[in-house]
Amino acid sequence: MIQKLQDNVSVLKGIGEETEKTLNELGIYTVADLLGYFPYRYDDYELRNLEEVKHDERVTVEGKVHSEPVLTYYGKKRSRLTFRLLVGRFLITAICFNRPYLKRSLVLGDTVSVTGKWDKNRQSIMVQEFKKGTHEQDGSIEPVYSVKENVTVKMMRRFVKQALSLYADKAEDPLPKQLVSAYKLMSYQEALKAIHLPETRDSLKQARRRFVYEEFLIFQLKMQAIRKKERERTSGIQHPFSKEAVFEFVNSLPFPLTKAQSRVLDEIMSDMASPYRMNRLLQGDVGSGKTAVAAIALYAAHLSGFQGALMVPTEILAEQHADSLYQLFEKWGLNIALLTSSVKGKRRRELLERLKEGEIDILVGTHALIQDEVEFQQLGLVITDEQHRFGVEQRKKLRSKGQDPDVLFMTATPIPRTLAITVFGEMDVSVIDELPAGRKQIETYWVKHDMLERILAFVDKELRKGRQAYIICPLIEESDKLDVQNALDVHSMLTEAYRGKWSIGLMHGKLASDEKDQVMRAFTANEVQILVSTTVVEVGVNVPNATIMVIYDADRFGLSQLHQLRGRVGRGEHQSFCILMADPKSETGKERMRIMSETTDGFELSEKDLELRGPGDFFGKKQSGMPEFKVADMVHDYRALETARKDAADLVQSDAFWTDPEYKELRQTLIDSGVLGGDKLS
Ligand code: ADP
Ligand code: MG
C-alpha cells in the first residue's frame, strides 16, 4: 500500500483513540495536517554569554553550584528552592518553584545547567529546566508545539519525527521549480524537516524564509485571481459621460484640483468608462480632498444617466455630506436626498418612491441604504466613506443594489501598504498623497495631566478670539476598572470652570441619535463653544471654526486614531492646535506621544502604528478581515510580501499558470479556497 500524506494520523505509532481525538481538536486529522502543524516557538539551548542576554530573555547557562540550596515551603505543595550559581565570572541566583526534590541533586562545586528566564536586574534565573553535568550542544534547538490535554510537546515531537521519516519524501512542493531556484529557496522537503527539527539556526531561518514566501504567494494568488476575475467581467456599466462635461463642473469648483486629486480622478473615470466593474479603494489623509473627488465621480455617473449613492457610517456624517453635495450641485440641477433611520413614515415612503422612479440623483445615507426596501431605478456608482467600518458582507450587499454598479471605497485612515495589499488585496488602490496648497500645519503638543490649568487658560484665550474646541475623553462615565478620564466628569468640571462664560456640549455614543444631532448642530452653529466628547467625533465631522483638540489620556489611543481625532481641527483658515494629555508609563506609550507631536503625515503614522501595535490591532477588533498567517508576519516580512504580490500578479496574467502541470499545486490551492471552480483545473 502506498503511504500518502492524506493518511489518517492514527497510522503513526503511539496514536490511539484518545490521542487522536485531541489531535483532531487541534485541527490535525491527517499526516499532512500534522506536518503542517508548525512549532510556534523553539527552545534554544545553545549556551550564551550572560552579558549579551537581554532582560526577560530565556537562556541556558552552565555553571558551578556555589551555595547550599535553600528550600522554603509555602503550604503543602508550594515551595521555592534557591541557590547561587557561578557562571563564568557571573555569580547569579537560581530559583526553582515547586521542585523540592532537586535539592538532592545540588552538590556544592558540581556542574549543572539550567534554562529559564533571565532577570537582569536581580541577576537571577527563574529555572524551568535543570540538568546535572555539562551541557550537551546536540539538538540544542527544540520545537515547541501548542498542545492540549493528553498530548504533550514531547509526544508531538515524537509524532512529527515519525511522520517526517515516513512521509516527508512524498510531499510535493507546491512552488514551481523556477521560483524555488530564482529565490534560492530551500526545497519543500528540506524545509519541512528544518522547520520541525532544525539542526542549526541558519537552517531554521532558511526554512522559515521559504514558508513565509509560500504563504504570502498563495494568499496573493487568491487576491490576484479574484481581481482578474472581476476585471474580466464585462457585465459592468460603461458610463458614457463626456470628459469635457465633467471638466466643466471641475472648473466651476472654487479651487484647482491638486496633482494627486487629478491623477486619482483619472483612474476613477477610466474605470467608470470601461465595461468592467470598478472595485477601487481610495486612500487619502484627512482633508486631502477625497470628498471633492467623490462628488466629481458622482457627477460623471449622473451625466451618464445613472444614480449614485454615498454611504457613510454615522448620521451626522451623512447630514454633512448631504449638505455639502447639496451646495456643490445646487447650480447643476441635481436632486440630492438623505436617507437615515430618522427619516420615517410618510417622508420615507415618498423618498423611496422618488428613488425608484429615478427622481433622486444622489442618495446619501447610513446603513439604511442597504436595507431591502431601498430600490434605485438605475444605480451606477456606489461610494462608501470610511469603508473599513463596514464589513465585507455589507460591502457586498451594497454592490448588489444595482446591476453591477461601480464601487469606490474611501478611507481617511491611511492604511499601511502591507495591510492595504493584504486586507484589500483584491481591489485596485488609488492614493491621494498630497494636501491642497496653503494648509497650515496643526501644532501638536504633548503635556502631562497636571498642566490642566494652563491648558484651560489657553483654550479660553482661543475661545475669546471666536474659535471653538473639542475635548476628548476615552470613557463616557467613570469606571472602576480603568483609571482614565471620562466625558461626564470633564463636562461638569468645565461647566463649573467656565460658568457664565462658555457653553459646553456633551457628546457620546450612548446619546440617542436626535440628541447627538442637536449637540452637533449647536456646535456647528457656535452656540456651543466647547464640545466634550468620546471618540464618536473621530470620523469626518467638519467644523472649520474649531481650532483646538485636547485629548485626555492620549496614550490610550492608537496613532491612527489620534491622527483621525487631530484631523477634526485644522479645517479652516485659522492656526489649529492639538494637545495630547498623557502620563504614559510604558515606553511604547511615550514613543507614541513623541511620534504624534513630531509627525503630521498620516501614512507615516500608520506605518509606525502598525509597527507598535501589530497588524491584529490596527483596525481594532471588529470586522478587520485580517487574514491569519501561520509563519509570515506582515510587518517584519513586508519585503517578501511585496515580492509575492508581484509574482502572484505576473502568474495569474500568464497562460502557463492556468495550463502548465508545473502550477497544478498552486492552482489547487485556489480551488480549495473556493476562488476558482473545479472546472478550471486542467
Ligand atoms: P477629505 O474628504 O479627504 O477629508 P474634503 O474633500 O472634505 O477632504 O476636503 C477638505 C476641504 O478641502 C474641503 O473644505 C474642500 O472644499 C477643500 N478642498 C478639496 N480639494 C481642494 C483643493 N484641490 N484645493 C483647495 N481646497 C480643497
Ligand atoms: Mg471627507
TrEMBL record:
Return one Gene Ontology term, BP aspect: DNA recombination
Quote any Pfam family the record assigns. DEAD
Q: Which SUPFAM superfamilies match?
A: Nucleic acid-binding proteins (SSF50249), P-loop containing nucleoside triphosphate hydrolases (SSF52540)
Q: Which InterPro entries does the record cross-reference, listed alphabetically?
A: ATP-dep_DNA_helicase_RecG, DEAD/DEAH_box_helicase_dom, Helicase_ATP-bd, Helicase_C-like, NA-bd_OB-fold, P-loop_NTPase, RecG/Mfd, RecG_dom3_C
Give the molecular function GO annotations.
3'-5' DNA helicase activity; ATP binding; ATP hydrolysis activity; DNA binding
User: What's its top-level EC category?
Assistant: isomerase
- Specify the domain of life of the species encoding this protein: Bacteria
Q: Which reaction does it catalyse?
A: ATP + H2O = ADP + phosphate + H(+); Couples ATP hydrolysis with the unwinding of duplex DNA by translocating in the 3'-5' direction
Entry keywords, A to Z: ATP-binding, DNA damage, DNA recombination, DNA repair, DNA-binding, Helicase, Hydrolase, Isomerase, Nucleotide-binding
- Is DNA-binding set as a keyword in this record? yes
Reported EC number(s) for this entry are 5.6.2.4
Give the protein family.
Answer: Belongs to the helicase family. RecG subfamily.
What is known about what this protein does?
Plays a critical role in recombination and DNA repair. Helps process Holliday junction intermediates to mature products by catalyzing branch migration. Has replication fork regression activity, unwinds stalled or blocked replication forks to make a HJ that can be resolved. Has a DNA unwinding activity characteristic of a DNA helicase with 3'-5' polarity.
* Protein name stated in the entry: ATP-dependent DNA helicase RecG
Please report the organism this UniProt entry assigns to the protein: Bacillus safensis
